[in-house]
Amino acid sequence: QPLIFNNRMSQPIKLSIPSHPKYLGLIRKVLQELLDYHEVPDETARRLILCVDEACSNVIKHGYGGPCEEPIEATFFFDGDDFKVQIRDYGKQCDSSQIKPRCLDQIKPGGLGTHFINEIMDEVSYCTERAKGTLLTMVKKLKNELTSVQEKNKE
Q1: Which end of the chain has fewer CB atoms < 10 Å from its terminal CB, N or C?
Q2: Helix (H, G, I), strand (E, B) or coil at 110
């Protein structure tokens, strides 16, 4: 029975991994299982996993300056029809006004993570009001996604 149609918040799922690309697959797999359990449509799940993967990659590259043993903490939870993700790091704090995707006219690898995140998620906020590190909160409103899939299935 999926919980996203309940008017209560589900228990949060929390993961803490070392800040290294080899552990990102673990976050992707856990998130895939969680989204499957909550019957999130495949395309929506794929896009949400992309956002989380990009956010964690940015923490490794920009927050910690490369792979290290410092943690990346990911928390996932459903709040009514909203799916919320928090990514916490203890690295270099970012200036949230400077976080923007590069110009899409430039044909080169990298730099599109924040573009994907801002396009896919409904709310994105960065909190640096702490001793060190950043807390990224991303929200996806699933009601629209679920309604469009249900309409498609009726056709």
Answers
A1: C
A2: coil
